[in-house]
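User: Second chain of the day. Same drill as before.
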Amino acid sequence: MHNSPTVTSKKINLISSNGDVFEVDYDVALMSKTVKDAIETIPTDEINSISLSLVRSEILTKVIEYCKKHNSAQMSDVDLMDWDVEFANVHYTTLFDLVLSANYMNINSLLDLVCGKIADMIKGKTPCEIAKLFDIKDVSTYEEDN
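Assistant: Same format as last time:
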């Protein structure tokens, strides 16, 4: 069993559902508990890539960006919070994809961030307003606002 590799120069390939390969530093990849568990169950000399079959390339790019930023010690907590706000300021479909990917990859801080953003988006809204916000066409089960 392999413990916790933290050598920055060591790389691992993450493979998206599209088949694209992303070379990532081990310490960045280890922010994902799913990746960490996979690495720890396979001898290090036998593993050089991990397939993430439920994560599309464009979302994996965002996840890696998030992990790199949060793995770096170059930002203050305030600057990192500001960066998080900007990072989560994306279309709702991207947010939903990030929720699914963060959950699948088991990156709790990212999951908390994007779920919090979605919660802020729907706070104080009626079911009809939420349906409009997320472009849900069949709102027949919701009462109309009057």
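The longest helix spans residues 57-71.

User: Great, on to the next one.
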